[in-house]
Amino acid sequence: MTWKIVLGELDKKMGVQIVKESVEKVVATMPVEGNRQSFGLLHGGALAALGEAVGSWAAVIHASTLGKKAVGVDINATHHQSSSEGLITATATPIRLGKRITSHEVLITNEQGDRLCTVRITNAIV
Q1: I need a surface site. Which of 3, 62, 111, 113 has the fewest CB within 10 A?
Q2: Please, what's the largest Cα pairwise distance for the chain?
Q3: Is 21 a catalytic residue?
């Protein structure tokens, strides 16, 4: 079973674009514009949603190598810094690629390379 990332409705509304997809790394970008909260800063929920999407895609790609699917079990997002403009990048890398559970870290940065958010996501392989 092979997998090709398909953007969901929320991903499209948020302006997410896939840059790279492999078992070792999934990279996507998202504009800050259109994803701000009422204070004009990038919405923390948008960061969490982006992290979940990218981490889940990475888990699904791994699961496809086993002929299986991946479903979410746990997600945690830590916000480090705010942003009010530009393009952000989310990079998912594996912490553990198991036969039953996968865990990924998703590092979300701004155009200057500053860490905005760290997302840790765990998926079950089913």
Answers
A1: 113
A2: 45
A3: no
Query: What's at 62, amino acid-wise?
Result: H
**pLDDT by residue (tens digit) across 36-65?**
999 999 999 999 999 999 999 999 999 999
Tell me the C-alpha distance between 70 and 125, whole Å: 5
Which amino acid is present at 36? Answer: R
Give the ranges where 3-90 is alpha helix by DSSP (H): 9-14, 44-65
For residues 53 and 42, give the distance between their C-alpha atoms in angstroms, rounded to a whole number.
17
What SS3 class is residue 57? helix
- pTM for the complete prediction? 0.94
Phi, psi of 44 (to 5 degrees): -60, -35
Q: Could you tell me if 54 and 46 are in contact, meaning their C-beta atoms sit under 8 angstroms apart?
A: no
Question: Which residues are bridge partners to 12 per DSSP?
Answer: none
| Domains defined along the chain, listed by start | 9-125 (3.10.129.10)
Which of 9, 24, 52, 105 is catalytic? The answer is 52
Nearest-angstrom CA–CA distance, 113 and 92: 15
